[in-house]
Amino acid sequence: MDRRDANNRTREEGLMKMRKLFAAVAAAATLIGGMVLSASSAQADGVAAGTTITVNNPQVGHTYTAYKFANFTSVTAGEGANGSKIAHVEITTESAWVNVVTAAAEAATGASIPAEYTQNPAAYVATFDAATLREFADALTIPTGTSAAGTPLSGTTEGAASGTISGLTASSWYLVKDTVKSNNNDVQGGPEAIVATQIIDGNGVTYGEFVNGLKADAKQNAITAMGEFNAKATVPSAPVKTVTSLTDCAANNNTNTKCTVRVGQTLSYNVTAKVPTDYASYDAYTFTFTDTPGTGLTVSSANIKVNGTKVSAVSSITITGFTNGDLVGNGSAAFTVILSKTALDTVLNGKTATNNYYDIELTYDAVVNESAENTVTNTTTVTDPSGTSEPGKVEKNVGQFSIKKVGKDDNGGWTTALAGAEFSIIPADDDTARRYDANATAETATALKFTEITGGNKGSYTLNADQSATSGVTSALATSSDSNNKGQLKLNGLAQGTYTVKETKAPAGYSSQFLPTFTVTVNADGTVTFSDLGNLDLVAGDATAKTATVRNVKSLTQLPLTGGAGIILFSVIAALLVAVAAIATVRIRAVKRELQA
């Protein structure tokens, strides 16, 4: 015999053994997922073994349809009673499924399928662990023109413990699709399952399990029997979250626009989620909102409502996470609103379902507190028996800008940081004024009150939530004397709007005759704009850094000699020269008259 023939036969035998080994491993691995190759139980009277798949806990309104993509053959019995445990099994991919099984396998692994499996990708799938098999199931599509196998399970009644997909073939591997109707179209109702019917050898022996007897994964509730799986609805969709406020965003109150809010402002949050109509078929059902307010938000439990009903009025609703009725957000601490089945019956009473789901709405208020900086963020997830959703998130900007105070250095540059300069911030128009006092106008608005938030003289201030406060607040905002940020002034917690910034006190040794006034606009997206900078060239605005650099001078001669300031300086000099000339002329004429006399 040719050595190459012998080598090829040896190689083929090796591959065959490898496939058998992989098949056994796969059987165990898919057992872990509770979706594949689990051992069988006795069939009902009159039903041939291996021709059904039992769906445990089928969901009302869902249809479960099986599609065959592979076959099991060449069963090798192992140990166990009557040899009923499988040691090895061969797997053959249905020809119409080769391409889609290959594509799904590559999507699950992120790599090309090994060359030895290109014609039989299902044998490769048999090597997957439970997590990879789950990815494979999610990625597997049905080939065009492929019909369902057997008779789907549909129209289950409330509380049904199980149902059956019938008319299937024994020793086969199926993709089971879970669908619901939406606008007369089939849409996904739950995750796909990969399930084997009972495996029967050529002698009619039905096999119950594999020799390694691995435990099943908890996600499938420890299913260990071939030909059945537990139905599981998809995890809930991320809730839709919005926030509104009477002083927030003007005409955009009811949108999720990133408006800029202030310290002390009350934000009204609205979280909309969906509850499946079949919740009523469960013996016990719990639906939970988990809300995580970010740093800068304080939530009170007193005003939490579900579908317009205060949670305090429904004894079957449980709330957690509050201390003395409040939760001060830090980005990790959360509160929960837990609704039992009884609570859902109460809050959903009279509601109309759409596409097999009820809308459920959580509302509450949160106050922007003094810890808010840059943005305040809030996220919510919902949890039901199917799992936990992705978070719904909403974010609001908090207005802030900085001032950098400088004077001339010995080289004529503007690099000397100046401590002790004081500024005031005043709303410049009616809309801005009313964000702090509903009855205020631009004419009646007064300087805003702030609290120093870092202590000492470090120049960092946050808007005081209570603008009527008379103690612990200041309207005179001083630049820092700290060596780390000398001359800096940081202002935080402002609402969107337009403000007049006035320097009210010059640093020691500097002229009080040239104190600038300028305008800052805090925009809806949190950006700032500097304008009306004056004509002495003493203010420069950097919108990117949200910083205005303000210059102080000791005398007229230090005014910048550019732009309007230079024109003014030369105009002043010219005026002085004219005045001197006029005085000199008058004096000369007077002397001349005296001499003539």
TrEMBL record:
Pfam families: SpaA (PF17802). The chain crosses the membrane at residues 561-586. GO terms for biological process: carbohydrate metabolic process. It comes from the Bacteria. The keyword Transmembrane helix applies. Residues 400-530 form the SpaA-like prealbumin fold domain. Keywords: Membrane, Signal, Transmembrane, Transmembrane helix. Residues 1-44 form the signal peptide. NCBIfam families: RrgB_K2N_iso_D2. This is LPXTG-motif cell wall anchor domain protein. It comes from Bifidobacterium dentium ATCC 27679.
